[in-house]
């Protein structure tokens, strides 16, 4: 404000006219401004106070270059917010009550504003010009400060770059970042959101996961939330994330950004093709495809190829790089969901990293992800590894304390959920379950804005895909889970149960234990 005030003090008014002389910068160039447009907007508001509703999302008081016009605008806005009439007399009286009437030039200046326009027909156009000039001034200010700081030997270049990019990004979003809001505005916004929620045909108000039992607890992934999905290595974290990605982007056309620090982009896409075409990734990797599988591959991946999915497989991604790429993706493609696989493989900023131990670095990363979620106003899902503490307990159910390397992860996250499969610890059942799939759970242990609970799912190891347990055609013959049972002798034999229900797989009674590549018909376990 000091810089803007000092600039305003150099604006001069002629004794004979109301024309303003725009000050020059140190190189003799005019500072971008549109005082005449400011006067036109104020004149339109004096003629038609209701036109404030048409520009209140475009203009903020700080966008005005001339401080006199700023005070007149504030007086008009104050009257509108109190539902009081707006005209020449009421605005003059409001300025007098605020002790700003003499500063703006008295009654003569205010009345002169009404001569600038004949109607409010073009008020939006004039307001956009004011906004454009404000953006130009802010660019000059930010770039000037960046140049100044860049000459300082003590300045860290990466921190400066991150700060400059963030401030320019805020300008691109019309510079509407505010430090605080009154409770009246916030209550109105909350009521508007609640009203919008009542119009939904389903209970899902965020980005759908595509799994009924998960959405029943979460109501979808919510804006500005940081969601941590954790599990032991090999539990299916990446498969779950890819399932969420596919359901959001393909089924609901939500643009999704996926940052993979563990697997390459081609490997991820191959997994997605496998799940979408219902052909095992092993067959795709070996090229063991018969004619009908090629047809199936082409047909079922068309929707996937057109989906708004963006994958970045940069290894050892830093917080700075992630934030820069995420802002760019949000600006260019309006991403509605961001995923990171996985959190512990990320790096903190180089300068900060040298001064922190690993636990502090992970804490910094989790805080940065939460900040990014709020800044972009989208859900951010970060996968995380669990420590070996679960292996040491008789009860293998994961706990919040099992999150590896930092307790800050659970503090920063809005939601913490664990993927759990009973067969992971009961290795004797693994060979049997590979042919079909296994029951699994998403255990939600923390939910800042909702309830906690368990979401039952079905995991196909062959296709590396999760679905809701109730949606699986073979949910009644999957590997019996010991998650809810402690009596092994009551478990039904998986082999016997499968053989008794061979008709589920296809009309020709092809056994699920036959090699799919040796059969003319691909077993389809997920058709809905």
Structure commentary:
The protein is α/β, with parallel strands linked by helices. The protein is built from 23 helices and 11 strands. The protein has helices at residues 2-8, 35-47, 52-55, 67-81, 88-97, 101-104, 106-113, 123-150, 157-172, 183-198, 212-218, 237-252, 265-277, 281-286, 291-300, 302-306, 319-333, 350-353, 358-376, 389-392, 408-412, 430-433, 494-499, and strands spanning 12-13, 20-21, 226-231, 256-260, 309-312, 337-341, 380-385, 415-420, 438-447, 453-460, 465-468. Strands 5-4-6-7-3-8-9-10-11 form a 9-stranded mixed β-sheet, with helices on both faces. Strands 1-2 form a two-stranded antiparallel sheet. A hairpin with a 6-residue loop joins β1 (12-13) and β2 (20-21). α2 runs antiparallel to α8 and α13 crosses α15 (291-300). The longest helix is centred in the N-terminal third of the chain and has 28 residues, at 123-150. It is elongated and about 85 Å long. The chain starts with a helix and ends in a 29-residue tail after the last helix. Residues 1-21, 175-179 and 473-528 have low confidence and may be disordered.
